[in-house]
């Protein structure tokens, strides 16, 4: 096959026009094209008067070698981009491999191990998908929180209640990312995630994908225990020998994959007390901002209609050299109450696959470092908790919200105006400046005003802010060596909660990396 790059077509083209343009690019007759498929598709919106789709196509062509000799730029032989499993190792496994957490990292570690015959056990403190969805919906309606099963904990991890974005900047020379996308499609995700420049699944479709993957792991000999929390680890001569679950049952274990989410604060505390090396790391906190999706579409697409809801990515450095940027942008989405601890409140963004709500929302966050919150291992968690406790108080248990103009003037909002609020969970008009230190408030105000230069109307007086967006990433890191092992032999830190990923794709890829090491070291049990 041949790979043909930089095929540009107007946004309203059809498949016949794509094939015709492909033939012209190759300088051949359309009948010489045996078949073709899209490898990449992106939208070039730099010229609002002439938006174009840009394709990279893999095509099977008659007389391919002759065509290659004649062509020079943007046409090459399609490379082999197949993910290859490593060969199995020879060491004996005395006990079943145990994975803590069923988010993307744990799920893909478990899936890859099960696929090669290792029969892992996944333990998950939250509920299965169906019961978790019911629990979360009840929480949004009543405010009744289940600390072990919520937006953060349960089958699929925090990503289950998100936009389901699958884009990543990680280099993929071993094609792990492609394998992740193929696996998602195999289990029910839309096929367009294989080629779209900014693929996403959406929380509604992602739930079934996760359910199907877990069922497949079980069919291949693995297992998953829900409502099962890691409560202790037992170590002998700096080696893991067993774990305790739910404060009562001990299970022999020599290989424990810690695919904890970034909100597993009680587990981090236990692990630190048991001697696991944990260090603080920089992260970011801030607010979520809501605008009408039509405003974002206009800014990004001009007057062009019938395009997918537009997104944006914005960055800025303040006059005091602090970074402010958009994060986890949710076109046509919802701002959700994402709390996981009693009397504390955190928020996140979520979209269904259709992205069909009236508002766009995005986190606008400010970078912070141990110099801001402290250099002890869990000082970042303490900082998060302080923000979340204050938010719970200011919002009277509900999501605290404020209009942007009132935020700049440091006064409580009294009513919503021209922009309709869209939340999952109850909200309360408040003054968000009571939640954050002043340096964060200053950076947010300066950053949002700067973003208005890039997207007209971004700093609209009536833009709706809510807070706190405090779980952007783990505030800790669990160091690991070249064998993916922590300072305690047999413990493998993995994914976002351990500080090695940020989002669904990078977490899944990290899970595959850890699985590869296990496969190369041990033979199946």
Textual characterization of the structure:
Helices cover 28% and strands 24% of the residues. The protein is of the alpha/beta class. It folds into three domains: 2-77, Alpha-Beta Plaits, CATH 3.30.70; 98-278 and 478-521, FAD/NAD(P)-binding domain (3-Layer(bba) Sandwich); 281-469, no CATH class. Helix 3 runs parallel beside helix 6 (203-219) and helix 3 packs parallel to helix 13 (504-521). The relative contact order is 0.15.
By CATH reckoning, the class of the largest domain would read Alpha Beta
- Strands in their spatial order, largest beta sheet: 14-15-18-13-22-19-21
- Taken from the alpha-carbon principal axes, the silhouette is globular
As residue ranges, the low-confidence spans are: none
Span of the ends, CA to CA: 41 Å
Kindly report the CATH topology of the largest domain. FAD/NAD(P)-binding domain
Write the layout of secondary structure elements.
Blueprint: E1 2-10, H1 15-26, E2 33-44, E3 52-61, H2 64-70, E4 75-77, E5 98-100, H3 104-115, E6 121-123, H4 129-142, H5 176-186, H6 203-219, E7 223-225, E8 230-236, E9 239-245, E10 249-252, E11 256-258, H7 265-273, E12 279-280, E13 283-292, H8 293-301, E14 315-317, E15 323-330, E16 334-337, E17 347-350, E18 359-368, H9 370-373, H10 379-394, E19 399-403, H11 404-408, E20 423-424, E21 427-429, H12 438-451, E22 464-469, E23 476-477, E24 491-493, H13 504-521
Parallel strand pairs: 5-6, 5-11, 6-7, 11-24, 16-20, 19-21
Antiparallel strand pairs: 1-3, 1-4, 2-3, 8-9, 9-10, 12-23, 13-18, 13-22, 14-15, 15-18, 16-17, 19-22
């Amino acid at each position: 096959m041949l790979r043909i790059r930089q095929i540009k077509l107007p946004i309203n083209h059809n498949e016949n026009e794509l094939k015709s343009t492909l033939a012209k690019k190759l300088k051949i007759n359309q009948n010489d094209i045996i078949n073709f498929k899209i490898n990449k598709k992106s939208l070039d919106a730099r010229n609002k008067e002439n938006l174009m789709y840009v394709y990279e196509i893999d095509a099977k062509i008659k007389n391919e070698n002759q065509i290659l000799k004649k062509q020079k730029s943007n046409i090459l032989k399609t490379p082999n981009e197949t993910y290859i499993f490593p060969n199995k190792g020879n060491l004996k496994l005395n006990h079943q491999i145990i994975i803590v957490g069923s988010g993307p990292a744990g799920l893909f570690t478990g899936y890859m191990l099960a696929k090669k015959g290792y029969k892992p056990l996944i333990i998950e403190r939250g509920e299965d998908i169906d019961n978790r969805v019911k629990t979360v919906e009840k929480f949004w309606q009543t405010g009744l929180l289940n600390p072990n099963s919520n937006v953060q904990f349960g089958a699929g991890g925090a990503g289950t209640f998100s936009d389901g974005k699958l884009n990543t900047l990680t280099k993929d020379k071993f094609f792990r990312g492609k394998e992740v996308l193929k696996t998602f499609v195999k289990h029910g995700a839309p096929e367009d995630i294989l080629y779209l420049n900014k693929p996403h699944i959406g929380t509604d479709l992602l739930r079934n994908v996760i359910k199907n993957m877990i069922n497949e792991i079980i069919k291949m000999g693995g297992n998953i225990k829900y409502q099962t929390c890691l409560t202790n680890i037992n170590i002998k001569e700096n080696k893991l020998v067993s774990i305790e679950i739910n404060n009562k049952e001990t299970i022999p274990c020599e290989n424990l994959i810690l695919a904890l989410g970034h909100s597993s604060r009680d587990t981090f505390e236990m692990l630190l007390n048991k001697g696991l090396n944990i260090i603080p790391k920089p992260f970011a906190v801030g607010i979520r901002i809501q605008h009408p999706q039509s405003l974002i579409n206009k800014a990004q697409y001009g007057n062009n209609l019938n395009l997918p809801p537009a997104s944006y990515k914005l960055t800025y450095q303040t006059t005091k050299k602090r970074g402010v940027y958009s994060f986890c942008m949710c076109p046509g989405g919802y701002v959700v109450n994402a709390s996981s601890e009693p009397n504390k409140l955190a928020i996140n963004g979520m979209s269904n696959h259709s992205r069909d709500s009236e508002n766009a929302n995005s986190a606008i966050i400010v970078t912070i470092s141990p110099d801001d919150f402290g250099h002890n291992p869990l000082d970042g968690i303490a900082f998060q908790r302080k923000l979340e406790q204050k938010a719970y108080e200011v919002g009277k248990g509900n999501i605290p919200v404020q209009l942007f103009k009132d935020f700049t003037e440091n006064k409580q909002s009294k009513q919503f105006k021209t922009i309709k609020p869209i939340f999952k969970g109850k909200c309360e008009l408040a003054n968000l400046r009571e939640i954050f230190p002043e340096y964060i408030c200053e950076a947010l105000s300066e950053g949002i005003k700067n973003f208005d230069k890039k997207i007209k109307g971004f700093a609209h007086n009536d833009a709706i802010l809510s807070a706190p967006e405090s779980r952007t990433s783990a505030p800790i890191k669990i160091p690991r060596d070249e064998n993916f092992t922590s300072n305690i032999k047999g413990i493998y830190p993995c994914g976002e909660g351990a500080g090695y990923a940020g989002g669904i794709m990078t977490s899944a890829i990290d899970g595959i990396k850890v699985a590869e090491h296990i496969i190369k070291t041990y033979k199946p049990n």
